[in-house]
Specification:
Number of strands: 27
Distance between the termini: 22 Å
Structural class: alpha+beta
Number of domains: 5
Strand content: 5-15%
Radius of gyration: 39 Å
Number of helices: 32
C-alpha cells in the first residue's frame, strides 16, 4: 500500500468505496480492512470473468507464484499432453501429445490480456508482489481454493501433499514403490518425490502410457472437475491401478480425488477449460431506421403517460388498503390489472413506477389506503415530454424491482407490489449498463438479447447460484420498451439523452403529437379523441365518459353512470350540453342529449343525509314506491313525514343501495345543499419519492478521495514516525501513545512552537478515543496548543490536559 502513489491509492478507494467507511487512520488500517472477508468478497464480485479466472488460477498456484507459472496456468503449456475426447465413442478424454504448434486457439489472446487482468487485481489490492513473487491476498485464496470436499472454481482438487496429509507412512511408501521411485526414509521426502514425478512432463507421460484404456476414461471423467469420485469397497481394476499409483488418492473409505498435479498434466497446464480473455461482442442483430425507432418509442412513451395517469386516478376516491405487513394485496393487484386492461406483472410495473416517481403513497390514516400524492397534481400540469422525463428518470434510478412481485422470499413469504422487500441495490447499475451497451450500437441497431446477456455475464460473472443480474437485464429490456426508452429493441434518441444526463425533453417533445382541444361525438354514444387531449378537456371528459379503447385515437363511451358521475362532481345538464357543443367538431347527437337530460331529470330528486341517514323527496309517490320495493328491506327505511324517510344504513350505503335499485339520488350536506364529489377529493399528505437503496457505500467524489488520501498519508506518518530518544523519556512500544509528564509536555510543545518543528503526540478526545498525531505547534497559551495537524491536514487546537505525551521526531522524519 505504501508503495502506491496518491493517484493509485485514490483509484483503489474509488473502486472499493467500502474501504472508506470510515476513513482509515493509516496504511495499516487500510491494508487490514482491504483483507477482510466482506471487502474481498465484494471486490471479487466486481471482477470481470477473465480477471476472476486469473485470481482463481493464482489460488491454486504455488504461493508465491512467478509470472511464467501463472501464464502457463492461463494459456497452457505447449509441450504437454492434453485431455481430448477419445475415439471410443464414450466421450472420455485421453492424453494426447502436443507439440509447439498445438497451442490452444485462445492462448495468444490469453497471454496478451493476462497483464491487463493482473493489473486489475493489483489495482484492487487483491494481488501484491513483483512478477517473480505474485501473491493473492490470503482471504481471496481461502475463498477460491479447494477446501474439504469442495473443489476450487477451476475444478481442481487438492495437491498431492494436501491429499496425503492424513495417509499412513506405509501407504505413501507403497505408492512410491508402485510408480517406480526409490524408497525414502520419511513420508515428507516420499511426498516430495511423488510430487516431482507428477509435475515432470516426460516421466508423467511415460507413467500414463502404461495405464489401461479404461483408466484413461476414469481420469477423463474427473479431469475437468469435479475431481471427486465414489468407489466401492472392491474397486474395478482400472480404478485400483490408478489408486495404487497415487493418480487417485483416497479422501475417505468411499471417495477418491484426482490430485491437482495430475489434473494439470492432463489439462496441458490449464487451470480453466475455456479461458475467456475477451469480452463477448454485442453487435446489432437487427437494424432499423433511427426515425422509425424514435417514433415507435415516442408512441410507447405517450401510452405510458396515459397508463400511469389512468392508474393513479383510479385510486383517487377509494384506493386499495395497505396490508398490515405493507404492500398491495393480490386481489387489489388483479383489480388494477383489470382497470388497465393488462397483465398482473405489467400492472405491478406501472404501480411501482408511479410509486418510485412519488405519485402514489399511503395516506397515513388509521385505515391506511394508497392514494395520489400532491405531487401527482403538479405532474399533471407538466407538458407530456416533461412528465415522461420524470417517470424515466425515476425508473432508471429506482432500486425497487417489480419483476419480483409474486415470488417468494427466503422465508417463503410472497412478495407483494409496493411491499418492503422489493429493493434490489443492483437494479440501477444493471439498467444503466444495459442501456450503455445499447448506446454502443449504431443508431437504430437492436442486439440479440442472448449476446447482451453473455456480455453482462462476462463483465460481472455469477459466483453463487443467484441469477438476479441476468433477470434484471431481461426485465430492463422489457421495461425500457414499454416505457418508451427504446423502440423496436433499439435505444431511442431521447433514451440516449436520458442515459448521458442530457435533457431528453426537447427530443421527445418534437416527436409527440400536439394536444388537441376537440373530440368527435358519434351517434352511438361515443366520442373519439383524435389525439392526446388538452388538460381541462381531458379531465372533464374522463369524468363524463368511460374509456372504451386506447391507441392513436381514444374512444370514450357515455353511459348513465358516467353522466351521473359528472353531475355528482357538480356539473349541471346545462354545463354538460355547453361543454360538448364547445369541444365537439361534430354536432351533439340527439341520443346523447336525451341521455344527459334524462339522468339530470332524475338526479337529485332524492336527497340522502345523515339521521343515521334519511331520504327526502317532494314526490311522496316515489317514496311510497321505494318503501314497497323488496330490495329496500336491508336499508331499514321508515317514513318520518310525507316527504321524508329515515334509514338505519349509513349515507354512503344508502346512496349505493338506491342507485342499485335504479334511482339517482344525490348526497345532501347538513345545511341541505347537494354534496359535490370532486375527482381530486382525496390526496395524501406531502410525500417524497422513495429513496433508492444504495449498493454498498456511495462512490466517493474527487474531493473526498483527495481528503481521504491526505488523511491516510498523515496518519501513516504519525503511526510510523521515529521519535528522538532521550535519556529521561523511554521509548514507547510501537502503536502505543507516548507518555510524558505535564511539565515535559508543555516544555516540548513550547520549544516546537518557537523552532517551527513538528512533534509526535498522543491524544485522547472527549469520547475517550486515543490516537497518535503529528502536529506543528504555532501557539501555546491558556492550557491549549494550536498547530497544524498533519494527520487531519488542518489547523486544530488541543487541550494540553488531553495530550498523554509528546516526543520530538527523529532528524530523518522532520
Amino acid at each position: 500500500m505504501r508503495a502506491r502513489d496518491d493517484a493509485a491509492l485514490a483509484a483503489l478507494l474509488h473502486a472499493r468505496p467500502d474501504l472508506l467507511s470510515p476513513v482509515p487512520g493509516d496504511m495499516t488500517q487500510l491494508a487490514t480492512r482491504a483483507g477482510t472477508r466482506a471487502s474481498v468478497v465484494r471486490a471479487l464480485d466486481r471482477l470481470d470473468r477473465f480477471a476472476l479466472q486469473t485470481a482463481e488460477a493464482l489460488a491454486v498456484a504455488p504461493d508465491p507464484c512467478p509470472y511464467p507459472v501463472l501464464e502457463s496456468l492461463m494459456a497452457g503449456t505447449t509441450d504437454t499432453p492434453r485431455a481430448t475426447p477419445s475415439d471410443s465413442g464414450t466421450g472420455a478424454p485421453t492424453a494426447t501429445p502436443s507439440d509447439s504448434d498445438s497451442d490452444t486457439p485462445l492462448a495468444p489472446q490469453t497471454r496478451a490480456e493476462l497483464p491487463r487482468a493482473l493489473a486489475t487485481l493489483r489495482d484492487q489490492a487483491l494481488v501484491w508482489g513483483d512478477d517473480d513473487r505474485l501473491r493473492l491476498v490470503r482471504t481471496a485464496r481461502e475463498l477460491l481454493s479447494p477446501s474439504a470436499g469442495r473443489p476450487s472454481p477451476t475444478g481442481l482438487g487438492p495437491t498431492v501433499a494436501e491429499a496425503t496429509a492424513g495417509m499412513s507412512p506405509t501407504r505413501v511408501q507403497e505408492i512410491v514403490a508402485a510408480v517406480g521411485l526409490p524408497a525414502t526414509h520419511d513420508p515428507v521426502s516420499a511426498v516430495t518425490a511423488l510430487t516431482a514425478l507428477f509435475t515432470d512432463q516426460k516421466r508423467m507421460s511415460a507413467l500414463l502410457d502404461e495405464a489401461p484404456a479404461e483408466a484413461h476414461q476414469v481420469l477423463g471423467r474427473l479431469v475437468w472437475g469435479p475431481p471427486y469420485g465414489e468407489v466401492t469397497a472392491n474397486p474395478a481394476p482400472p480404478v485400483r491401478w490408478l489408486r495404487d499409483r497415487g493418480l487417485l488418492l483416497p479422501t475417505s473409505a468411499r471417495t477418491v480425488v484426482l490430485p491437482r498435479e495430475v489434473a494439470l498434466h492432463l489439462r496441458g497446464g490449464l487451470a480453466h477449460r475455456t479461458p475467456e480473455p475477451l469480452a463477448p461482442p454485442v453487435t446489432a442483430h437487427r437494424e432499423h431506421r433511427p426515425q422509425l425507432v424514435d417514433a415507435n418509442a415516442a408512441g410507447q412513451a405517450l401510452a405510458a403517460l396515459s397508463t400511469v395517469e389512468e392508474l393513479v386516478k383510479s385510486w383517487e376516491h377509494a384506493g386499495p388498503p395497505v396490508l398490515r405487513a405493507g404492500g398491495l394485496s393480490v386481489r387489489d393487484l388483479k383489480r388494477a390489472a383489470a382497470t388497465l386492461d393488462t397483465t398482473e406483472p405489467m400492472a405491478a410495473f406501472w404501480i411501482e413506477l408511479a410509486y418510485a416517481a412519488g405519485l402514489l403513497a399511503g395516506d397515513g390514516e388509521a385505515d391506511e389506503r394508497y392514494a395520489p400524492t400532491p405531487a401527482f397534481d403538479d405532474w399533471l400540469e407538466l407538458p407530456p415530454a416533461e412528465r415522461w422525463s420524470a417517470l424515466a428518470a425515476a425508473w432508471l434510478a429506482a432500486t425497487r424491482t417489480a419483476g419480483l412481485v409474486g415470488e417468494q422470499d427466503a422465508k417463503g413469504r410472497t412478495l407483494s407490489a409496493l411491499g418492503a422487500d422489493l429493493d434490489r441495490s443492483a437494479a440501477p447499475e444493471v439498467r444503466r449498463r444495459v442501456l450503455e451497451l445499447l448506446a454502443g450500437l449504431p443508431e437504430g441497431g437492436s442486439p440479440d438479447p442472448d449476446a447482451l446477456l453473455n456480455r453482462l455475464g462476462w463483465e460481472r460473472p455469477v459466483r453463487g447460484t443467484s441469477d438476479l443480474r441476468a433477470r434484471l437485464a431481461h426485465w430492463t429490456l422489457a421495461e425500457a420498451e414499454t416505457l418508451g426508452v427504446t423502440g423496436r429493441g433499439a435505444l431511442a434518441a431521447h433514451g440516449r439523452a436520458l442515459l448521458e444526463h442530457r435533457d431528453p425533453v426537447p427530443l421527445l417533445a418534437a416527436l409527440l403529437p400536439e394536444p388537441v382541444d376537440h373530440v368527435l361525438l358519434q351517434a352511438d354514444l361515443t366520442a373519439v379523441a383524435p389525439g392526446p387531449l388538452r388538460r381541462p378537456l381531458a379531465d372533464v371528459l374522463a369524468v363524463l365518459a368511460d374509456v372504451e379503447s386506447k391507441g392513436g385515437a381514444t374512444v370514450y363511451r357515455f353511459t348513465p353512470g358516467s353522466v351521473r358521475r359528472a353531475l355528482d362532481a357538480g356539473h349541471t345538464a346545462v354545463d354538460l350540453h355547453a361543454f360538448l357543443a364547445e369541444h365537439s367538431r361534430t354536432p351533439v347527437p340527439q341520443p346523447l342529449a336525451y341521455l344527459i337530460d334524462d339522468v339530470a331529470r332524475r338526479h337529485g330528486h332524492l336527497r340522502v343525509g345523515a339521521a343515521s341517514s334519511y331520504v327526502r323527496c317532494d314526490d311522496d309517490g316515489m317514496l311510497n314506491e321505494i318503501l314497497a320495493d323488496k330490495r329496500s328491506a336491508g336499508l331499514g327505511l321508515r317514513r318520518l313525514a310525507p316527504t321524508v324517510l329515515a334509514a338505519q344504513a349509513e349515507p354512503t350505503a344508502l346512496l349505493d343501495g338506491l342507485r342499485a335499485m335504479g334511482y339517482a339520488p344525490a348526497a345532501e350536506s347538513r345545511t341541505g345543499d347537494v354534496v359535490v364529489a370532486r375527482a381530486d377529493a382525496h390526496r395524501t399528505p406531502a410525500r417524497s419519492a422513495p429513496v433508492p437503496v444504495p449498493d454498498g457505500p456511495p462512490v466517493p467524489d474527487d474531493t473526498l478521495l483527495g481528503a481521504a488520501v491526505r488523511a491516510i498519508r498523515a496518519g501513516d506518518l504519525a503511526a510510523t514516525a521515529v521519535r528522538k530518544e532521550t535519556a529521561t523519556v523511554p521509548s514507547a512500544a510501537p502503536g502505543e501513545l507516548p507518555r510524558t509528564s505535564a511539565a515535559e509536555t508543555l516544555a516540548t510543545v513550547q520549544a516546537a512552537a518557537l523552532t517551527g518543528s513538528a512533534v509526535w503526540i498522543g491524544y485522547v478526545n472527549a469520547d475517550g478515543a486515543a490516537s497518535q498525531r503529528v502536529i506543528a505547534p504555532v501557539r501555546v497559551e491558556g492550557g491549549f496548543v494550536t498547530g497544524y495537524d498533519h494527520t487531519a491536514d488542518e489547523v486544530r487546537t488541543y487541550p494540553l490536559h488531553r495530550i498523554t505525551g509528546v516526543a520530538e521526531l527523529a532528524e530523518d522524519q522532520v
